[in-house]
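Support request from a user on the community tier.

User writes: "When I paste my structure tokens into the form, the page sometimes reloads and wipes my input. The last time it worked, I copied everything first. Here is what I submitted, just in case something in the input itself triggers the reload:"
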């Protein structure tokens, strides 16, 4: 009787079949996948802020000031006066919009602290004021 020799080769045909089936499945399902969108802020040409908005100015040294967008005159405030002024404005109009105008050299944490303080005071509408790139400094 003759002995059979062992084959030391791997049959790759089943692997190729599985790969082609997976390729077809991915090609069919890929167009059906919904892609997500991310809305990022833009500092291009923007419309004018609401005229009734109260602007919270944060100076380069971290000092706070408030001004009505319509009047143009700003008044410096301390942290306690800031909280009281926001509460009074919200008592007059709960939907009062606010803008935060911070100096560009100010650490970002200070801006976050001002936003957090405004949120804790009950502000619902608050935005960051930007300067368009075409405006001169």
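"...and here is what came back when it finally went through:"
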């Amino acid at each position: 009787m003759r002995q059979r020799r062992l084959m030391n080769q791997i049959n790759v045909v089943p692997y190729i079949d599985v790969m082609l089936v997976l390729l077809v499945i991915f090609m069919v399902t890929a167009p059906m996948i919904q892609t997500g969108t991310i809305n990022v802020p833009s500092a291009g040409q923007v419309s004018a802020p609401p005229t009734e908005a109260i602007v919270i100015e944060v100076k380069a040294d971290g000092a706070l000031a408030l001004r009505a967008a319509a009047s143009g005159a700003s008044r410096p405030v301390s942290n306690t006066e800031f909280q009281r002024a926001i509460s009074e404005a919200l008592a007059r109009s709960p939907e009062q919009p606010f803008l935060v105008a911070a100096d560009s050299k100010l650490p970002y944490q200070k801006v976050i602290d001002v936003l957090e303080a405004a949120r804790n005071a009950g502000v619902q509408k608050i935005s960051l004021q930007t300067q368009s790139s075409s405006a001169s400094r």
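Agent notes: The reload is a front-end session timeout and is unrelated to the input. The radius of gyration is 31 Å. The helical segments are 13-29, 79-92, 108-120. Escalated to web team.
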